[in-house]
Amino acid sequence: MPAPAAGTVALAALPAEAQHTERLIRSGGPFPYAKDGTVFGNRERLLPSHPRGYYREYTVPTPGSRDRGARRIVCGGMQPREPEACFYTEDHYASFRRIVQ
What global pTM score does this model have? Predict the structure, then answer.
């Protein structure tokens, strides 16, 4: 079984766009992309194992990108506005760091 997400990152150390996305998550939106808030399947198995539907993904806009870019926040928990844990990826799910306050 792959190891859980390695490392942590302080919310304040994330790009401003990620901090804004995290605030949107906790306020329930509105989100700029239709895929924001959809179920993240954890197919890469880099995050701790949980039943399908536990994780949701949100786009972190990348300045200058013509599409959604590679940056995301993935949060886990049964109440999307009050996630149990959130993870940041800047490489489209190849690696994750848990976001800490």
Answer: 0.92
